[in-house]
Amino acid sequence: MSDRTPPPDGLVIVDKPSGFTSHDVVAKMRGIAKTRKVGHAGTLDPMATGVLVLGVERATKLLGHLALTEKEYLGTIRLGQNTLTDDAEGELISSTDASGVAREAIDAGIAKLSGDIMQVPSKVSAIKINGVRSYKRAREGEEFEIPARPVKVSSFAVYDVRDAVAEDGTPVLDLVVSVVCSSGTYIRALARDLGAGLGVGGHLTALRRTRVGPYKLDSARTLDQLQESLTVMPVAEAAAAAFPRWDVDERRGKLLLNGVRLEVPEEYAGAGPVAVFGPDDQFLALVEESKGKAKSLAVFG
């Protein structure tokens, strides 16, 4: 008979280090939490740091729904240079003196990339084209196009514009920016498109994700801190923070768990995933309204 403590059940908010892939972080967390059942809610590029939401055990069932929430970033865009990957990790492909670019032109360029826009993801991204990852096609030297897709940039602000000189001697401008955007938005594609619109090229040199949905950097822990003391947000708390809450009595809770499609109160119609709680704050299920009834997305009760 094993007396091993069962793995924790919940979300872990990691402050991802630079140089790690999201998969590297998941692998590390499997070791820390002593379970194979770990997943992430949306990747973060190896160069980037900041909030990466992991689910452990039953919380993995929340991840697909959390991945769709709004995200917030702080980053640095270098105007004057293009790279193969649209970030600092890629090979330099062009340099242009950007010292003459006016602030008004930068602001106008940013305005064009704000709101509901169509964006072409970077070729070195995880997007699948006919079942094959885009980065794999790009590494093999294949010529291909990625279709533009709709994304929402709720806020794109410049905090600082700094004159700099690149390693090859080109005068460049470094913009410190913050971006709030929908899931699926590529910040390096914003950097690329801003530079292209200004005629000097651009790429991302630093990126830090400060928020995923309701989960912010102040609740994130580094891998070293988690190794010392594993901080897990219980599934119920995580669901209450991320989704609208619908409280039901014991009878309706049992019906719901037995597969009965209850009528959903009007306030939750079209709200996306809704967290259903029974008596004593028990998290029962994640549902969404479909034709006025509760359709189960994941059951926890």
Task: Write the SSE topology.
Blueprint: E1 10-16, H1 22-33, E2 38-40, E3 49-56, H2 63-66, E4 71-79, E5 81-83, E6 92-95, H3 103-112, E7 115-119, E8 128-129, E9 132-133, H4 134-139, E10 149-165, E11 171-181, H5 187-197, E12 202-212, E13 215-216, H6 223-228, E14 233-234, H7 235-242, E15 245-247, H8 250-257, E16 274-277, E17 283-290, E18 293-299
Parallel strand pairs: 3-12, 15-16
Antiparallel strand pairs: 1-3, 1-14, 2-3, 4-11, 4-12, 5-6, 7-10, 8-9, 10-11, 12-13, 16-17, 17-18
Describe the structure.
The protein folds into 3 domains: 10-69 and 213-237, Pseudouridine synthase (2-Layer Sandwich), CATH 3.30.2350.10; 72-202, Pseudouridine synthase; 243-299, Archaeosine Trna-guanine Transglycosylase, Chain: A, domain 4, CATH 2.30.130.10. Helix content is 22%, strand content 36%. It is built from 8 helices and 18 strands. The strands form 4 sheets. Strands 1, 2, 3, 4, 7, 10, 11, 12, 13 and 14 form a 10-stranded mixed β-sheet that branches. The model has no long low-confidence stretch (mean pLDDT 91).
- Give the tally of structural domains: 3
How far apart lie the N and C ends? 27 Å
CATH topology of the largest domain: Pseudouridine synthase
CATH class of the largest domain: Alpha Beta
The secondary-structure element order is EHEEHEEEHEEEHEEHEEHEHEHEEE
CATH homologous superfamily (4th level) name of the largest domain:
Pseudouridine synthase
What is the typical, i.e. mean, pLDDT?
91
Strand content: 35-45%
User: What are the segments in which pLDDT stays under 50 over at least 5 consecutive residues?
Assistant: none
The tally of beta strands, per DSSP, is: 18
Question: Per CATH, which architecture of the largest domain?
Answer: 2-Layer Sandwich
Q: From the structure provided, what is the oligomeric state, counting identical versus distinct chains?
A: single chain
Characterize the main sheet. Answer: 10 strands, mixed
Percent helix: 10-25%
Q: In one word, what is the shape?
A: elongated
Helix/strand class: alpha+beta
Number of helices: 8
The Rg value, from CA coordinates, equals 22 Å
